[in-house]
Amino acid sequence: MQGEMLREDQSRSPKERLRPERLRTDCPVLLSERLVLRAPHEEDIDALSHLANNAKVATMVSRMPHPYTANDAADFVRRTKNGGIGKCVYAITKAENGAFMGCCGVEPLADQQTVEIGYWLGEPFWNKGYMTEAAHALVDMVFRTREQVEQIDARCRVMNVASRRVIQKCGFQFQGSGLAASLALASNVPVEWYRLDRKTWMSLRSWGSMS
Predict the structure, then answer these.
(1) How do residues 116-175 score in pLDDT, each as one tens digit?
(2) In the chain, what are the domain boundaries?
(3) How far is 124 from 156, CA to CA, in rounded Å?
(4) Handedness of CA 68, 70, 74, 80 (dihedral sign)
(5) Which of 43, 58, 102, 209 could pair with 64 in a Cys bridge, judged by C-beta atoms 3.0 to 4.6 Å apart?
(6) CB 139 within 8 A of CB 167
(7) Which fold has domain 29-205?
């Protein structure tokens, strides 16, 4: 199944696949030890639709429909190219072969001093530390490149233990509980709200202590 998700362009090096002409200057490519975070593009559609068409994923992400089709994936890729100011959506890919693994992103809130991050990872890649690694890279990018941002918010379903673990490993602190809409479930679900402020991030910049 893993081999079916690899596209012809993934035989090239990660740098060749980054396609800088498609990347917005306020959403730089992010590199970590095992990952490359870059803009989604058309070659991701098959892998995206395959991994996202999973109820275990969709019911944990507020804006993902289920079932998830190739048309949904194509529409998602198209919309990411027209994101608003300060909004970044990244494809999470393996540095070694370019395999598409999931998505993460950052969206500014109305006060301009707060952004919210979101993420999901395909089930074959769970429990290997990839999501924490991607979240660290995303958080670092926000605080290092956006001087006006003072805090980052993150939310997860109350029952999503793995997502809560990622949030806590990034140093976020619990703020409260509430309800949020789930597109896949067509209802509101209980969620927890966490926040990481710039001062706390600066004290935790050596992510090695949080892994």
Answers:
(1) 999 999 999 999 999 999 999 999 999 999 999 999 999 999 999 999 999 999 999 999
(2) 29-205
(3) 20
(4) positive
(5) 58
(6) no
(7) Aminopeptidase (3.40.630)
